[in-house]
Amino acid sequence: MSNKRPFSSIVVDGPTQAPSRAMLYPVGFTQSDFKKPQVGIASTWSMVTPCNMHINELAEAAALGSDENGGKGVLFNTITVSDGISMGTPGMRYSLVSREVIADSIETVVGAQGFDGFVAIGGCDKNMPACAMAMARLDRPSVFVYGGTIQPGQNRRDIVSVFEAVGAHAAGTIDDKGLLEVEATAIPGPGSCGGMYTANTMASAIEALGLSLPNSSAQEAISDTKRQDSYKAGAAVCHLIEKGIKPSDILCKEAFENAITLVIALEGSTNAVLHLLAIAKAAGIPLELDDFTRIGQNVPVLADMRPAGQYSMSELIEIGGVQPLMKLLLDEKMLHGDCMTVTGRSLSENLIEVEPYPKTQKVIRPLNNPIKKDSHLVVLYGNLAAEGAIAKITGHEGLRFSGPAKCFHGEENAMAAILDGTIVAGDVVVVRYEGPKGGPGMREMLSPTSAINGRGLSQDVALITDGRFSGGSHGFVIGHITPEAFDGGALALVEDGDIITIDAVSREIVLEVAEDVLESRRRAWEKPKPYTTKGVLAKYARLVSSASEGAVTD
After folding, report:
1. What domains are defined for the chain?
2. How far is CA 465 from the centre of its chain?
3. 188 — phi, psi (to 5°)?
4. Separation of alpha carbons 475 and 376, rounded Å
5. Among this protein's residues, is 470 annotated catalytic?
6. Which residue of 107, 326, 380, 445 sits 20 to 30 Å from the alpha carbon of 246, by its own alpha carbon?
7. What is the pLDDT of residues 111-170, one digit of tens each?
8. Catalytic residue among 470, 473, 546, 548
């Protein structure tokens, strides 16, 4: 390949840069390497979670792909935290914060070291949007690699099976031995959570954006195809450097519309809304909540996948992954086929030779028999959410819910009430002061929603929050309520017994309380003390934007 080194040449060329070269010999550079484009390999390897425990092997494969195609691969690490492990604890406050830390750290290393391009490899939920945000900010030739999905556990179990078993244990339908058996057999090895939860949702969305190689989103973590994908990513960055193709050539409004369309067809996580808004912000692309509504009116839900459906990501992989679905959507003119991708070709060119799904498969429904005729991601407005809220309405829950509020300051109090039987059929559980600023960190409510499901109340109880939900949550759940309670949003004014009505058809969430009463409560409301006044959480709370704007700190 030609000597295109717009950034590394500044760092290593000429007599004045002898000290820089001297520092690089000990880490594996030879004199000839200084003439090659430098390709950073951002690894999120960590032993804190099975999602990322294998990623160094993928990083090494990516570096080899770079080295054998004219580049010089340089590995570096960034952090990860585990949503599944920290869920329901104070530690979950750091989850969304980690997205910003990862994006910042990749930007910092690539910018400081003068890499000409890079590969970013993510395995757990926040790794993926963070990698894409860094790619957009830096605007250097780059490819994202998804670490891959976990294989199903015994009896097709996964992490959500364990969370729901906690609720079943509280309800007395399984005993201690049964709970131990579920927890010991649900997670068989490396990879991200195995349904269409946030990790697999975001991997699919990033592929639709054009930032990863075809089918990178639909490969098991422990597979030859995933190692090959990583190798090819290292090679692809060298090609992108040669051609001068950057994320700004790929990330346009139409690319984000493609990502939204695929997320809807897959019945993906509500977190996709938050993360796509954040990636768009980093790319300078105007994207709003109402874009999800506009696109969702014409896109059906087709994937019968967990958490609301039956099948795992591994079962989608067995029938061909997301590429046949993308081809189907393209043929129906639901995708923009002319968008550029990291292959150097357009989306439609990538899909030309993709075969359709086997006729006998049941994971992806036909267009004439969808799970839902329009989007499951419903943007709600009303006096309880003047700036919007996000509901995940799959059709299994019904389209309307109205009931008396039971209010809780924080997730722990709500969880205790669910487990001790305080929450009964008909209730609307209000979990507040869990927003980006108030949490801080906008914790996911997988523990409460799973406990509700485990107690057999998923059809009879709604849960609303200014926090957010795991991709594993299902039921009548509404999150991302803005303005958040900590900022004096109407959620802070709800009292026990107030009637709350949620209507997915009219797209409204209404607190059935007179405006003069709400105004009186508003005057009497006192802002609670922040969770902390120092450290990363306090810094995050000072900087973070509203959830309706992606909860970004940049």
Report:
1. 8-18+35-151+189-351 (no CATH), 152-188 (no CATH), 377-549 (3.50.30.80)
2. 18
3. -85, -15
4. 12
5. yes
6. 326
7. 999 999 999 999 989 999 999 999 999 999 999 999 999 998 898 898 888 988 888 898
8. 470
